[in-house]
Amino acid sequence: MRVLxxxxxxxxxxNFLRERGVDATHVNRIxxxxxxxxxxxxxxxxxxxxxxxxxxxxxRDSHFIAGKPARVMRVTLGNLSNDQLxxxxxxxxxxxxSVFEEARCYVEIGTGGLRVFNxxxxxxx
Length: 125
Known about the structure:
This protein has a single domain, classed as Rossmann fold (3-Layer(aba) Sandwich), CATH 3.40.50. It has helices at residues 11-19, 38-48, 57-66, 82-91, 93-99, and strands at 2-5, 23-26, 50-54, 71-75, 105-110, 113-117. The chain has a six-stranded mixed β-sheet, with helices on both faces. By secondary structure, the protein is α/β, with parallel strands linked by helices. The protein contains five helices and six strands; from the N terminus they run βαβαβαβααββ. The chain starts with a strand and ends in an 8-residue tail after the last strand.
């Protein structure tokens, strides 16, 4: 499983994912780093079979309107500490691990918990 973390996602999350066997990288390590356009990120994610983790609502819109990128997780918690973010991912790890294997889906992680949207599953896991 491959994951790309967008520019506002901390490197600590990349490290957390790597410790759990995920092939994770940060957008600042690919293409044009923090200057990479959303369309280039979406194309990269789909071409590499990655799952995008982002805070950017534009990727949600693009996923539902154009189907690109195919796999997106949006963090909707605003500015929380790295420790809080890692704890949230750790708490939901069992579900997240299976979600990262989905061929197409949209996930939100926020104050309401973890919500998974895809063709085969109902929201609110």
